Amino acid sequence: MRRRYHEVMLELGDAIIGATYAEGTWLPNVDALHERFGCSKGVVREALRGLEERGLVEVHPGRGAKVRQRELWDTRNPHVLRACIERGPEPDMLWQAIQARAAVECEAAARAIESAADGDFRLLLANIEAMERASAGPEFVAAEVWFHRTLALLSDNALLAKLSEPLHGVLAQIRRERAPQRDGATIRHHRRILEGLSSRDTELATESILGYAERLSDWVGARR
């Protein structure tokens, strides 16, 4: 049931974000969705609860599920964010995601330069070395995610780190899917970011973070 509920939830979520079901309209009722997906009504109700948790619908007992306005969609959820990037109503969503992470990372870098120990930056080097050793896409993506996650955590501000956490996996996956030939350049950009951090040069670190954001936008075709 767990896997089937997730499949139904993702399909409905994609339909909502892709405007098959417009904002402010009602989804088909449980009986209709049960027939459409060929699953139990319990699976449908679980899927609707999942959509509600992600801010996509508001469930009204006895009436059904109503699609919420896009401003209320929880783009902190990676599935929602990825769907918004791929088929959502805002064509610049990918560019927004890249810029949002860069803004957080510039602040995180400044804080890390001020307070992190030299040994902390070796964690970032280990992530880069893991990217260099990666023999498959998922391994490269995982190492890249950990680089950005570690950078955020080195800010010594857990709330700041949480702001960018949902973005790392989505952006790394999209970069690897759309521009796999850029692995080498991606590594070079990350080494440049580390150079700024380990030399405690805030200007260089900021320039490198923004530079990678600019190149990443170009590689993945992010619209502005």
What does this structure look like?
It is a single chain. With 224 residues, the protein is mainly alpha-helical. The chain folds into 2 domains: 2-78, Arc Repressor Mutant, subunit A; 91-220, GntR ligand-binding domain-like (Four Helix Bundle (Hemerythrin (Met), subunit A)). Helix content is 71%, strand content 4%. It contains 10 helices and 2 strands; from the N terminus they run H-H-H-E-E-H-H-H-H-H-H-H. The protein has helices at residues 2-17, 30-37, 41-53, 78-87, 93-115, 118-133, 137-153, 158-178, 183-198, 202-220; strands at residues 57-60, 64-67. The chain has a two-stranded antiparallel sheet with strand order 1-2. Strand 1 (57-60) and strand 2 form a beta hairpin. The longest helix has 23 residues, at 93-115. The relative contact order is 0.11.
